[in-house]
Amino acid sequence: MEVQVLEGSGRGGAAYSLKANRYSNEDILFCIDVDNESMVEMKNTGPNGRPITRLDSIKQSILLFIHAKLTINPNHRFAFASLSHSASWVRKEFTSEVDSAITAFRGLSVSSSGGQADLTQLFRVAAHQAKKSRSQNRILRVIT
């Protein structure tokens, strides 16, 4: 991919060009907060008139993000964990299938446990997965 800008670029009309850039393959682990606050209704309603919760909004945002990332590089992969009192897997296998994300969202359930979340397990999972991703020449990203 090379981009050239010819009109009005630089001093004296000199052209700029960007060299081709290969996007790295990424493994992206989403950690979704599923405490009681995630079920709070927002001010907007959905297309069917039903109130939208914070969790609904989070799911929609993640789906848009996934579609955008796969447009940039179809080799990106995604997995999902939930976070309430501690982190736990929702979908452990990394995949680039959008339908897999939708299925993982169906598996999310809101936890009634309150208090502070312990991120220790999430960091352990991320550290282990980072080694696996690195061995496959991939970058691990954790989004909470």
UniProtKB/TrEMBL annotation:
Keywords: Cell cycle, Cell division, Chromatin regulator, Cytoplasm, DNA damage, DNA repair, Mitosis, Nucleus, Ubl conjugation pathway. Its main location: cytoplasm. It comes from the Eukaryota. GO terms for biological process: cell division; chromatin organization; DNA repair; positive regulation of DNA repair. It is found in: Cytoplasm; Nucleus. One of its GO terms (cellular component) is cytoplasm. InterPro entries: BABAM1 (IPR026126), vWFA_dom_sf (IPR036465). Belongs to the BABAM1 family. This is BRISC and BRCA1-A complex member 1. It comes from Chenopodium quinoa (Quinoa).
